[in-house]
Design a protein that fits this description.
Elements lengths: L1 E5 L3 H12 L4 E5 L2 H8 L6 E4 L8 H11 L4 E6 L4 H9 L4 E4 L4 H16 L5 E4 L2 E4 L4 E4 L2 E3 L3 H12 L5 E2 H9 L10 H16 L4 E6 L3 E6 L1
Parallel strand pairs: 1-2, 1-3, 3-4, 4-5
Antiparallel strand pairs: 6-7, 7-8, 8-9, 10-12, 11-12
Length: 225
C-alpha cells in the first residue's frame, strides 16, 4: 500500500513514517503545499495523511485543489485542530476521515486499512481469485490453503495486480506503486522483471489457477487460466 504523509512537524512525520513502514507500507513524505503537489501531480496513492496546519497554504487548500483536479486518492486529515468547523469543511472537501492529534498509531493504521478496503475492495479483508486467496491484513497469499512464500516485493506486486484483476497495469505505474518515486533514478525495469519472473515461477509451482500475463512493451495483468 502506498501512502503520502503531508506533515511539517518533523518528529510527528518521522514517527508516522517509521511506524507505517513497519507495516510494510511504501511511504513518501511532503512538508508543505508545493512539495506535496510535486508528488500528487505525478504519482497515485492509496492514502494521503494530511495535516491542516501547514506553512503557507493550509491542508484545506490541498483538499480544494485535489477536488478541483478530480484526484480521488483516499485522504485522512490528521491534525491538532479539532474544531467541528474544520472537520466538517475537510469532509465536505472530500476527505474520507478525520483523526485528531494526539492519536495512537494503531488507530491510524486501522483507519488507513479501512479506507483501502472500502475504496478498493468493497470492505473485504481478503481477495479471492480462482484458487488464490490473499489475506490483506496479514500480507499472506495462499494457493489451495497452502501458503505461498513471497518476499515483500513479490507480495506487493501480486496484491497490486490482484486488486486490478484483468486490468492492464502499466509497468511504470506498477514500479511507482511498489518501489516509490525513487524509480525515477533508474534507467531500466530490470528490477521489476526479476521479481515478476520469480512470482510467476512460484505461482506455477503451486499450480495456481492464475498467472501474470505480460503485454509486451506495456505492462502486466493478472488473469485466470
Amino acid at each position: 500500500m502506498k501512502v503520502l504523509i503531508i506533515e511539517d512537524e518533523e518528529e510527528m512525520l518521522q514517527n508516522m513514517k517509521q511506524t507505517l513502514e513497519k507495516e510494510d507500507y511504501l511511504i513518501e513524505t511532503a512538508t508543505d503545499y508545493d512539495s506535496a503537489f510535486l508528488k500528487i501531480g505525478v504519482y497515485d496513492y492509496d492514502c494521503i495523511l494530511l495535516d491542516i496546519s501547514l506553512p503557507g497554504k493550509s491542508g484545506l487548500e490541498i483538499l480544494k485543489e485535489l477536488k478541483k483536479r478530480g484526484i480521488s486518492d483516499g485522504v485522512i486529515i490528521v491534525s491538532a485542530k479539532n474544531s467541528l468547523d474544520d472537520k466538517l469543511e475537510g469532509l465536505h472537501l472530500g476527505a474520507d476521515d478525520y483523526l485528531p492529534k494526539p492519536f495512537h498509531m494503531a488507530e491510524l493504521n486501522a483507519r488507513i486499512k479501512a479506507i483501502f478496503r472500502r475504496r478498493n475492495l468493497q470492505g473485504d479483508t481478503f481477495i479471492e481469485i480462482e484458487n488464490l486467496k490473499i489475506d490483506i491484513e496479514n500480507r499472506i497469499a495462499f494457493i489451495e490453503g497452502e501458503e505461498l512464500l513471497l518476499n515483500r516485493k513479490e507480495f506487493d506486486i501480486l496484491f497490486y495486480l490482484a486488486s486490478n484483476k484483468n486490468r492492464l497495469v502499466n509497468k511504470t505505474a506498477l514500479a511507482e506503486h511498489v518501489w516509490g518515486d525513487h524509480i525515477d533514478q533508474t534507467d531500466s525495469f530490470d528490477f521489476i522483471y526479476s521479481q515478476i519472473k520469480n512470482l510467476r515461477k512460484k505461482l506455477k509451482d503451486h499450480q495456481a489457477q492464475v498467472e501474470v500475463k505480460a503485454i509486451y512493451g506495456i505492462g502486466y495483468k493478472l488473469v485466470s487460466l
